[in-house]
Amino acid sequence: MSVNLAKGQRVSLQKGPGETLTVVRMGLGWRAAPRRGLFGSRTRQIDLDASALLYADRTPSDVVFFQHLESSDGSVRHTGDNLVGGAGAGEDDESILVDLAHVPPQITQVVFTVSSYTGQTFAEVQNAHCRLVDESTGLELARYELTGGGPHTGQIMAKVFRDGDGGWEMQAIGAPAKGRTFQDLLPAIEPFL
Fold first, then answer.
1. pLDDT tens series, the chain, 193 aa
2. In what residue span(s) does the TerD domain sit (predicted)?
3. Which SS3 state, helix, strand or coil, does residue 8 take?
């Protein structure tokens, strides 16, 4: 059963007693919001980019994004860049797979960000979501809906992190930020590590 998360809310990634997830998919979906103009409404294509930053405690260790599709150890993989979005309500436009069983032990958290590579603000985006899916079953575990738009061009969406008992948890962050690339968002990530 999927959990709709609010900002700051956490959810355990344990499947059941003694069971843990092995591979999760962080999916990002969005549509360009229609803009009212003199000749009716129309939409501009928006290129949002999903990135996953791997941290050893508070130190960046690796990153997966549209120009580096796989982490150095192979445990995190981006499925490819979508330049326009709009796959449909509930569908993912970009996905990042995390093989939790093979994430190196020194990596304590994986932070997922979204940035508007073309520089449009989130006020021009609608139906944006970030969701976590059990890749082995296809079941959606958690969903964070990006609501409210805003003048920002980046978003610290969520993170998965080790819970101290050998398992993993997910936390919805939903913090707005300024930036067109994951590098621009690094200072905004710091408070959430």
1. 455 666 777 777 776 666 667 898 988 887 776 665 555 555 567 778 889 999 999 999 999 999 999 999 999 999 987 655 565 556 788 899 999 999 999 999 999 998 888 888 877 777 777 788 888 888 887 777 766 567 888 889 888 999 888 788 888 888 889 999 999 999 999 999 9
2. 1-180
3. coil
CA distance 48 to 25: 17
Cα separation, 174 vs 179, in Å, equals 15
Helix (H, G, I), strand (E, B) or coil at 122: helix
- Tell me the two tokens of residue 57: 């405690």
Nearest CA to 130 among 100, 163, 160, 95?
95
Give CA–CA dist 154/114, Å, rounded: 6
